[in-house]
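TL;DR need structure tokens for one chain.
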Amino acid sequence: MEQTTKTSKSEELDSFTIFLHFGLIFFGVLAWLTGDWAGDYKKVNQLGFTVHKMLGMGTALFVGARLFHGLWGPEQARFANWVPYTPERLKMVFEDISNLFTLKLPDRPPHLGLAGLWEAFGLAVFTWMGGTGLCMFLFITPGHKAGGLIRTVKELHELGEWLVPIFLAVHVTAVCLHALAGDHRWRKMLFLKG
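>> reply
TL;DR here they are.
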């Protein structure tokens, strides 16, 4: 794939944003991987549910910190500066999508255009999972089946079994394609030179 050149501006990420990204990777992926174990909550001894619950709470803490950081953190980390909700930012998303159809990778600063939309989707997915997971953490009684509203929340939480891997697959694929095209922006996440 060829890369389009819209801007050469590089955005520096602060250390706390990188820390939050790694926390979301660690806890979010492990919580997703242990999700199938959580079905043993109906038993009195429920190791799987306990492990998943602890990893989920770690995810919820990192999601909460990222949301806070996105509202009141440094300029480049704030959602107001990159979430595609303005006509100009939505136009960038559509430009990026049309460029993909011509086998050109978008070349924008982090978080803008299609990348911004996808990252906002990822944060929404992890926020959803953290919120519904917190609700279950508070209201599921180990040793009893979930019923009523908490059962509905449990079913909605299980949407993450599909949404998390879809988000991760597209995100990782985009990073790999950009790296193959010579854009090694991922190196900044490891405090290496891009």
